[in-house]
Specification:
heterodimer, A: alpha/beta, 21% strand, globular, B: mainly alpha, MetI-like fold, three-stranded antiparallel sheet
């Protein structure tokens, strides 16, 4: 990795069309505003601060991915955005209004699908609309449209357990979007899927995002995924917890899997890798296991 | 290798073996019982006297201990008197299988000895009525209370400590109290079933509801559900299948309280029948009546199990899959015929702003479990 990075461009260098795109994004209204957000656990005095002083303005229809080592609080961050957790200081605003508990203006897609097993696929998608007081026939019509959009019309009467993981997650996305949220929050949504399905889901998600008025907040631990999907990447760190960097993704849109090997892509990946796996003495020690040799001489595998 | 493995730990057995084992689980105890009953040298501790001989206190058809019989025989032989004759029998309280089988029929068609005694079917009917009302009334209050305790910390902390205390009090201990309050007829019996069921029911259902996956509740909250709707639309349906299973188990418990309940006040129902028959020494009838309880219980449970599958279609894993599987495939075939675009294109909305090279619309839907086939164009 280090030798490859020698030949790579600076990840901050943007092609003119990429720079123009970011200018355009910044002119859009702010959908989600994060001001000095802090989250700490434990009693006063012995507090463990997960992150502090997180500030960020996310514009309408921006695609933000969040990465960071385990324990950096990325899940906590988006759970606060979803209203499922509370911050200990600072605030988050959606369209200028402070977040107070979960609400239909922020949809969420979880890693564990969380489809309602007692409802058919169609009824799952109808749920949000029913909660907003829509009549069954209205909700049904909308649910059908959304299922068509994610390519699952034929499964509308199936139960979730009859679907594959990728299909379940597409239903979950349709269910979240059917409720007409402003922000779609996704917590490692493709983490449980195999590599092939995951690649397809990424492509589906980009297609959906292009034609729906939605701002996406997306957690992942897969650097390729973070780069492939995002406009900007929020990198969180530990000790001390907080924002390491907010990176404007130099990889031009529209995206395709071929870009995984372009110089911008690799440069950004090297940078992310560096930020997340900052070498520490502890890690180095962990690399070598104290294993004694238990095979006969000459019986080598490598 | 695997097919010879009957005792694999947590290892699923083929259908045929399961059926064989189920049949064995009933036939083995039955065979043991038959063996003890029909093999003269197995147990048979008594001797039924057919000819008393010269033994003074022996009479015909009398059952004596085998040791006494042998002692008397030896004594008679030594004294040169007539030796008694007889054959080995089991005690009267262990009737042979065929006698009990006959009793299953005769108990229903034989009129009771006394005119005011109930027939067997009347006794059973009364027992079932007692169970029904006790369980019904308990569930009427216990299920909603359990759901509340499981859903809200407030009700859990307010209700459960007392209920936890109360459930240790044995229901029969309230017999006298129930009679004093409710009289000697059906009232106190239903009350005993109620007391025996209710407190367990609240706690068990409370626990079941607490086990609802919190992620489902969170997902519903992000979709705008709150308060009462969250309880009615998410927690209840998420817990309902487990509550149903709990109810089946609790109904079994209610049956175990039946005999105790029926001796409270005036003895009634199947308990009265069993006691009366034991008094007449009709132990074949006693056995038949006890087995009847088991058969009714098992039949009820099997019926409820079947009903559960009808009520909760999302739990019918195997069946649902079999029913659903062929449908999408045939639809793919039908749609492919007239459609230039493959029917299983993932995103069907046209994409004017995307270059054709980036379009993934010719990718088939990924369905690893074989629900769909990739279209062949």
């Amino acid at each position: 990795m280090s030798t490859a990075s020698l030949a790579l461009p600076d990840y901050r260098v943007q092609a003119p069309e990429v720079a123009a795109r970011f200018k355009k994004i910044q002119q859009r209204p702010v959908t989600l505003s994060v001001n000095n957000l802090q989250k700490a656990f434990g009693p006063a005095g012995h507090q463990h601060v997960v992150f502090d002083h997180v500030s960020l303005d996310i514009h309408r229809r921006e695609f933000i991915t969040i990465i960071g080592p385990s324990g950096c609080g990325k899940s906590t961050f988006i759970r606060i955005a979803a209203g499922l957790d509370e911050s200990t200081a600072g605030e988050m605003l959606v369209d200028g209004k402070p977040i107070f508990g979960p609400g239909p203006d922020r949809g969420m897609v979880f890693q564990g699908y969380t489809l309602f097993p007692w409802r058919t696929v169609k009824q799952n998608v109808m749920f949000g609309l029913e909660m907003q007081g829509q009549s069954a026939s209205e909700a049904e019509g909308a649910a059908r449209e959304w299922l068509e959009m994610v390519g699952l019309s034929r499964f509308e009467e199936s139960y979730p357990h009859e679907l594959s993981g990728g299909m379940k997650q597409r239903v979950a996305i349709a269910r979240a979007l059917a409720a007409n949220p402003k922000v779609l929050i996704m917590d490692e949504p493709f983490g449980a899927l195999d590599a092939l399905t995951r690649a397809k889901m990424q492509s589906y998600l980009l297609q959906i995002w292009k034609r729906v008025d939605i701002t996406i907040l997306f957690i992942t631990h897969d650097l390729d995924e973070a780069i492939y999907l995002s406009d900007r990447i929020l990198v969180l760190g530990v000790n001390p917890g907080g924002v390491r960097e907010v990176i404007e993704n130099p990889v031009p849109r529209p995206r395709s899997p071929e870009q995984f090997l372009t110089p911008e892509f690799l440069a950004l990946k090297a940078r992310l890798d560096h930020l997340i796996h900052a070498p520490s003495s502890e890690d180095e020690e962990d690399d070598k296991l104290p294993v004694i040799k238990m095979t006969e001489a000459g019986d080598e595998v490598e | 290798m695997a097919s010879s493995d009957w005792l694999g730990l947590k290892h699923e057995l083929p259908q045929r073996r399961q059926i064989i084992l189920t049949i064995l689980s009933f036939t083995v105890p039955l065979l043991l019982w038959a063996a003890v009953s029909y093999t003269p040298w197995l147990w048979h501790p008594l001797v039924k006297v057919t000819n008393p001989g010269d033994v003074e206190y022996f009479v015909e058809d009398m059952e004596v201990k085998r040791s006494d019989f042998l002692a008397e025989s030896a004594k008679m032989k030594a004294e040169g008197l007539a030796v008694p004759e007889g054959y080995r029998v089991n005690p009267v309280y262990l009737p042979a299988p065929h006698e009990v089988a006959r009793a299953f029929y005769t108990a229903f068609v034989t009129p009771p000895r006394l005119p005011n005694e109930p027939w067997l079917h009347q006794s059973l009917g009364q027992s079932i009525r007692t169970i029904f009302w006790g369980f019904f009334l308990s569930s009427l209050i216990g299920v909603p209370l359990g759901v509340l305790c499981g859903s809200y910390r407030f009700f859990s902390k307010l209700g459960e400590p007392f209920i936890e205390f109360f459930r240790y009090l044995p229901a029969p201990a309230f017999g006298a109290l129930c009679v004093a309050i409710l009289g000697i007829d059906d009232g106190p019996k239903i009350a005993i079933i109620f007391i025996g069921t209710f407190f367990q029911q609240v706690l068990v259902i409370g626990n079941t509801v607490r086990k609802v996956d919190p992620a489902l509740i969170e997902a519903a909250q992000t979709l705008g559900a709150k308060g009462w709707k969250l309880l009615r639309k998410i927690i209840l349906p998420a817990a309902i299948t487990d509550i149903y299973t709990d109810m089946r188990i609790l109904l079994g418990w209610a049956w175990t309280y039946l005999i105790v309940a029926e001796v409270v006040g005036t003895m009634s129902g199947i308990t009265f029948f069993i006691n009366q028959q034991a008094r007449y020494r009709n132990f074949d009838n006693v056995f038949a009546a006890i087995m009847m309880i088991g058969i009714i219980g098992l039949a009820t449970d099997l019926a409820l199990g079947w009903l559960g599958k009808v009520l909760f279609p999302w739990k019918r894993k195997g069946l649902a899959r079999k029913l659903v599987k062929p449908i999408p495939i045939s639809m793919v075939a039908v749609q492919n015929r007239g459609d230039a675009n493959p029917a299983d294109a993932p995103i069907v909305i046209p994409e004017p702003d995307v270059k054709p090279s980036e379009s993934t619309s010719d990718e088939p839907i990924l369905a690893p479990d074989g629900l769909t086939k990739p279209a062949k164009s």
